[in-house]
Design brief:
By secondary structure, the chain is mostly helical. The chain has 7 helices and no strands. The chain has 2 domains: 9-78, no CATH class; 86-118, no CATH class. Helix content is 57%, strand content 0%. The termini are far apart.
Length: 119
Amino acid sequence: MPAKNHLNSKQIEKLQKALKEEKNANIIERVLILLLLNDGKTQSKIAEFLGCSVNKVSYWSLKGDPDNLESLIDERMKVNHKKATDKYIEILLETLEKDPQELGYNFGRWTAQRLATYL
């Protein structure tokens, strides 16, 4: 674990700026981990404060580089993990325009559950 006040003033300023400007909650949490470690908080206290696991705090305290905020981005964030494909969305929109009775159903309105079952 890094020693208290291990970050220089430039690193702290960079992290505090990221904390104010960042929109992604995961990145904010990782920045907080680095700043709290610099304040001398233990990994278990940080985990308790943030409501996350000690493993997560440990991982980001080692992986997070205060000089390179890109290091706080994990691989999942770099890729678009869209669950619904363009084709699926197209079929969904076409289905919404149809009356369920046209498709052989006894009901007259789509609900989220009925759409999910149909699709």
